Amino acid sequence: HNKHGQKHDAHVKDVDRKLADHRRTIQQEHDRNHNHLKDVVSQHADNLSQMVHSVKAESSFHGSMEDRVQRLEKELKEQSIKLMGINRFEAELKDVRETIGGEKKEREAHADM
User: Fold this and answer.
1) Rounded to 5, what percent of the chain is helix, strand, coil?
2) Cα–Cα distance between 42 and 40 in angstroms, integer?
3) What's the pLDDT tens digit per position in 5-39?
4) Cα 41 to Cα 70: distance, rounded to the nearest angstrom
């Protein structure tokens, strides 16, 4: 009966050792998988961050392009207004010159009489 007890004790120790080894193996596998998942999540977060940055940069670029277009349109409008003013001034100046020229001719014609 003593031999049977020793065999049983040896078997229990062997089973305990195998269970401990199995637990270590499972824990190592769990740790590897967990680390792999952390790496995958981190990579996806980096990719997402780059995409967000890219979208913001593109949006900023389009925004700055829109701002440039608006500034150019405003400048063009201001220049057009100035040009219209210059054209109006030149037209008025021409009218004044024609009026002065006409009056001068009238005086000359009147003086010749």
Assistant:
1) 100, 0, 0
2) 5
3) 899 999 999 999 999 999 999 999 999 999 999 99
4) 42
User: Distance between terminal CA atoms of the chain?
Assistant: 164
Q: How far apart are CA 70 and CA 72, in angstroms?
A: 5
CA–CA distance, 91 with 78 (Å, rounded to integer): 20
- The Cα 12–Cα 74 span in angstroms is 90
Token digits of residue 109: 């014609």
**DSSP symbol at 52:** H
| SS3 of residue 29 by DSSP | helix
